[in-house]
Amino acid sequence: MAADSSRVLVIGSTGYFGKFMVDASLRLGHPTFALVRESTQASDPEKAKVIESFKSRGVNIIYRYFPSEFGFDVERLDIMEPAKSILDVKARVRQRLREEGVPHTIVCGALAANWYFLPRIGQVEASGPPTDKVCILGDGNTKVVLVREEDTATYTIKAADDPRTLNKIMYLRPPGCVITHNEMIDLWEKKTGKKFDRIHIPEQEVIKKIQEGPVDMRGSYMIAHAGFVKGQSIIDIDTSFGVEASELYPEVKYASIDELLDSYL
Q1: What residues form DSSP beta bridges with 137?
Q2: pLDDT, tens digit, 9 for 90 and up, residues 131-147
């Protein structure tokens, strides 16, 4: 461990992304601290196991809670309600950080590759890869960014010591992680040797699903609409306050979408 490695505090450490952040921080040699709620450890056996795992690897556990920031650029996001109002809270937190002069780095990780869409080859309602047909929102030609969770964590922890990211927004846009839905399906067809019937869902029908569809699917459709139809994961980077992770850290060997798809064969 380098003597001058800074201490890293992971907020939401037992959540989906938090575990990857803790792993990356430890792997890159940082003294690592994890914020957890005492009630979480007492009431959730699975997360209690995660916390015990942290302790066994030398993570310092701190029992407090603060909000976190990941995903789309919430200050420039075109997404439907009620997601917009929920994410507006994050935008207000950003603004307060700036007003109070708190040193910070905001990471816009776009869409988590293995969380939802890549295992379904970009579909919303499917339970896995297509077998005969594949549903596409819109025309399927909108660029979207899908970054592996471990890579998002690595880029984030590397930024913790980097003065180039201070008070900046760091966007994750490795070239091999930028793709359209049609291109993703092309790759999958090449890997499987199959051709799939491509069914396009017009944007108005997508909006109707968001407004009137099953409650448990509306959130996924909102995110898919913002990413795969509106292209909100690949908005222009304003260099006055924005930097791009793969340009800052070309030494990071990230997993491309082409490589990640192999794991679903």
Answers
A1: 201
A2: 999 999 999 999 999 99
- Indicate if 90 belongs to the active site: yes
CA distance 83 to 212: 15
Q: What is the pLDDT of residues 148-187, one digit of tens each?
A: 999 999 999 999 889 999 999 999 999 999 999 999 999 9
The domain spanning residue 50 has which CATH number?
A: 3.40.50.720
What domain count does the chain have? 2
**Residue 52 and residue 139 in one domain:** no
Of 17, 44, 68, the domain-final residue: 68
Q: Which residue in the list 19, 47, 49, 90 is annotated as catalytic? A: 90
Last residue of a domain, one of 17, 43, 68: 68
Asked if 210 and 80 count as a contact pair (C-beta separation under 8 A), the reply is yes
* 9 strand-pairing partners: 33
**pLDDT at 3 (0 to 100):** 56
Cα dihedral sign for 69, 75, 76, 79?
positive
Which of 253, 106, 262, 109 is CA-nearest to residue 176? Answer: 253
